[in-house]
Automatic annotation (TrEMBL):
GO terms for biological process: lipid biosynthetic process. SUPFAM superfamilies: alpha/beta-Hydrolases. This is Oleoyl-ACP hydrolase. Residues 25-247 form the Thioesterase TesA-like domain. GO terms for molecular function: hydrolase activity. Keywords: Hydrolase.
Length: 249
């Protein structure tokens, strides 16, 4: 059972909003960390309490072993959110691997009546859309090449060999988790889903993004942005505007 203290390892708050009436929970991409969402937290702290999930094996959790299973990551993150619970309505935003994790955590919380009111799935094909991928089986140089290709890793990390070698085990764990993930047949959530995707994403076609629709019993929407897998770094203000509208409409 996750205690409030251990939940703090998993759930990070950069701009606390004690008077907020809603909470946004952000899930990072493979190899990403909670601080990726610092700008989102800063931009939305006036309309929501923004928190981000910190996976083991990175930043101040770098001494912990990474988790190589989406199911286990979802179990642990769901436990942490339960311990963090103060009954604020939850909205989830996840990018890439984080989109799948948001979906799986939503499924778990839904079982005990704590379903998020909305799930934003960014830069990821639907849970039922499978591609054979093997980044987690490559050597270190192969993993690094993939990170460079997707342009989502801080150039300061990619340019510092010592730091890079330190974080590679966690990155490999993330790739193992997402590349071996298989959704349960017919997996659905009751929460509405909005998919956000770049029109030139090598990891998600528009058809694969639309395939999220059968995974919700609620409403479905899709927003397409110019760009690749990390379209959201170039269109941060537009993505933040979508989220702000959700909280203020």
């Amino acid at each position: 059972m996750t205690t409030a203290a251990s939940a703090d390892l998993w759930v990070r708050s950069y701009h606390p909003a004690p008077d907020a009436t809603a909470r946004l929970v952000c899930f990072p991409h493979a190899g990403g960390s909670a601080s990726f969402y610092f700008p989102v937290s800063a931009a939305l702290s006036s309309v929501a309490d923004v928190v981000a999930v910190q996976y083991p094996g990175r930043q101040d959790r770098h001494t912990e072993k990474g988790i190589e299973s989406i199911a286990e990551l979802a179990d642990r993150a769901a436990d942490a959110l339960r311990a963090h619970d103060d009954s604020l309505p939850l909205t989830f935003f996840g990018h890439s691997m984080g989109a799948v994790l948001a979906f799986e955590v939503a499924r778990r919380l839904e079982r005990d009546g704590r379903a998020p009111v909305h799930v934003f799935a960014s830069g990821r094909r639907a849970p039922s859309s499978h591609r054979p991928e093997n980044v987690h089986q490559r050597d270190d140089d192969g993993v690094i090449a993939e990170m460079r290709k997707l342009s989502g890793t801080d150039p300061r990390v990619l340019g510092d060999d010592e730091v890079l070698r330190m974080v590679l085990p966690a990155i490999r764990s993330d790739y193992t988790a997402i590349e071996t993930y298989r959704a349960e047949p017919g997996a659905q959530i009751g929460s509405p889903i909005t998919v956000l995707v770049g029109d030139d994403d090598p990891r998600t076609t528009l058809d694969e993004a639309r395939a999220w629709e059968p995974h919700t019993l609620g409403t479905f929407d899709m927003k397409v942005f110019p760009g690749g897998h990390f379209y959201l770094t170039d269109h941060a203000q537009e993505v933040i505007a979508v989220l702000k509208a959700h909280f203020t409409s």
